[in-house]
Amino acid sequence: MTKMSGAEAILACLKEEGVDVMFGLPGGVLLPLYDAIYSSDIRHILVRHEQGAAHAADGYARATGKVGVCLATSGPGATNLVTGIATAYMDSVPMVAMTGQVATSLIGRDAFQEADITGITMPVTKHSYLLRSAKEIPKAFREAFYIARSGRPGPVLIDLPRDITVEEIEFSYPEIHLPGYQPSVKVHQMQIKKAAKALVEAERPVIYAGGGIRYAEAHLELFELAVRLNAPVTTTLMGVGCFPEENPLSLGMLGMHGTKYANYAMQEADIILAVGARFDDRVTGSIATFAPKAKIIHIDIDPAEIGKNVRVDIPVVGDAKNALSEMLKHVSPRPRTAWNDKVDYWKKEFPLRYVMSEEVIKPQFVVEKICELSPDAIIVTEVGQNQMWAAQFFTHKDPRRFISSGGLGTMGYGLPAAIGAKVGRPDCEVVDIAGDGSIQMNIQELATAVLNDIPVKVAILNNGVLGMVRQWQELFFCERYSHTTLGSCPDFVKLAEAYGALGLRATKPSEVEDVIKEGLASDKPTVMDFVVHSKEMVSPMVPAGASLEEIMQLEG
Amino acid sequence: MRHTIAVIVENTPGALTRISGMFSRRSFNIDSLTVGATDHPDYSRMTICVHGDEEVLEQVIKQLSKLINVIRVSLLEPNESVERELALIKVNADKDSRSEIMQLVSVFRAKIIDVAPRSMVIEVTGDEQKVDAMVRLLRQFGIKEMARTGRVSMVRGTKVVKV
Q: Is some CB atom of chain A closer than 8 A to the CB atom of B27?
């Protein structure tokens, strides 16, 4: 036992948890904690806006599998984290968010920069703590990290009143005792055998894999199972990369902007094996007509996901890696059948496609070129059309190399998340595929990248509009483009240069390759501004509320 | 369909907010919620009555179980459990109506716990139907104020809902 201040105890806890980096921005009530950080060897990266800190911690967590840590001061600092916390919650990202709070004696008195952040974040955190004494610090941190990373991962918030960071305590790191939290990791053997039998006997099986594969690191088991069963595999946006897309069994992504063949396969399947996926409305289309011929096997670590949106025939609660490896013991090889031929026919007949142009840059072409020139890059996306094209036209093959805000759909996520990913995986090329709308929501983080020497590459698919909303206006609102035109401001090259980053631009298809090559070769944070066709639409598309087989090709 | 759920929760600040917040966020309908101490100082017991079909009920139980402060969640089957509710009813009572009210109170095995020149406070305990019936009958005299606890419930026999 050693005597130390609450602030020092917090850092001692972070050490115990193996934290090597945190993203934050100081403020009044955090002065004692930042004073302790000043002499700590844990790396702290100063962001320009707290939302950037939360997304950077999130990107770090998704790229490394470790718990991401962010830190903000009380009041506005804490509320600025909320979007980032909600983003992490929707996509089950392990994160610990620390917030400063006014002194315990002032709580509830509407003190300067006071906000009830545990109250505000309750619906978007896995759990949270408002500490009342420094003595509570070790136990809260121990539990917070454990809760964040175990079971279905998620963000945990710890609110730290100023006075507890100066209070002295005897530090010791406690054991975990959480009687109300026992994540179900082990799987039920009977259910596994039932599921395996159903799969082996299936005529038209499809595997539908989500982000749970990534968190459980179950991609090898998934691969083995798919190959042994000759079962086509489609992934959700969160599952992109969990099954290599160059494999003939890959159907790519399903749902609203999934491939036609993935959606057709879901609607025709007689058995669907859902693993670590949650039947989101963007995946199922109309629930009433979703997969009408299929029995559904659902593997998920969160029992509450099973039966939440669709009826499940064979539920399996547990860790995806355990479940799939147990299942492999009971699955014999299944030969290719007419079903595989049918799926292959759909793949050949209805590929993802776009009309290439010699005059104007097509955004899909930019994504394909990035894939060609940097096939192993970690691709981070913003939200909207850029995100869908990044999912569709890059050949993904690694579960931790596609990072995107799926559930919450947070514009402004990409750049800070890319910074976090690059900090966690400095050996990898990290490319943020962005839109000109999204990138402006956290563009200030270019300063963070430049000053901390974090050479992320941003590829802006600049169409001058809020493209996804515009697409819906074109299709469903009689081309009444209400407030979706952004115009040609700012000049992203000059903006990049103003921040000390490298700015590059391509306005013609012939310039795209050179710009990407130069951007990739740069050792500085780089913004590549691709001035693309503004009317291009994401295709194919299942209209909201329609059935998956009603997917339509939109020609741009 | 109405269901009664017993929930053992940690006695921590915020546990109640977490539970009520979860219900409102997921659009589950609470008919009543009561909280009180257990024989263990670290835990409280809630009895929650919810409305919904089987699917809703399953989600309610699963989402409750997910909360870190929730230790146990048990569905109390109506045929296998006893349930009670308590109401305090302040009713108009002058010398003309007083004896009639007292007769009703005695039929219901309720109690008069306060008497004033123009009013009385009646305490009635029983299942929901009984309390409702008492309230209906007292309405003719004019109910001035009412406080009801919501349901508490327990499994019959030796089976227990404990930590």
A: no
